[in-house]
Amino acid sequence: MKSDEYSSFLRVLFGLTSPSPVSEPIEVEWIDPSLNDSQKDAIKFALGSREVALIHGPPGVNRCNSLSVSIY
After folding, report:
1. By percentage, how much of the chain surpasses pLDDT 90?
2. pLDDT at 71
3. What is the DSSP letter of 10?
4. CA distance 26 to 48
5. CA angle, 63 as apex, 33 and 32 as ends, to 5°?
6. Rounded CA gap, 54 and 50, in Å?
7. At 33, which helix (H) or strand (E)?
8. 7 Ramachandran zone, left/alpha/beta (phi>0; psi -120 to 50)
């Protein structure tokens, strides 16, 4: 496959281009009342990202819970 045939996801994944800017803020109906503002911001960022989003943080900050809410 030639590089001009790559999808936008592959271009970002291989470092050929930068990710697209996050789209307009997304309205979310929160199903988990225990999420804090930082977790909500991370979920909104992931949902608004076109190609890929990375949620990172130190141990114990509930990344897995944030990811499961994003997928649900």
Report:
1. 0
2. 67
3. H
4. 7
5. 15
6. 12
7. none
8. beta
Q: pLDDT tens for residues 27-50? A: 888 888 888 898 888 888 888 888
Amino acid at 42: A
Nearest residue to 3 via CA among 19, 20, 14, 18? 14
Q: Show the tokens assigned to 69.
A: 């809410």
Cα radius of gyration (the chain): 15
Query: What angle, 0 to 180 degrees and rounded to 10, lies between the N-to-C axes of helices 63-71 and 37-48?
Result: 50
- How far apart CA 17 and CA 42 sit, in angstroms, is 22
20 versus 60: the higher-pLDDT residue is 20
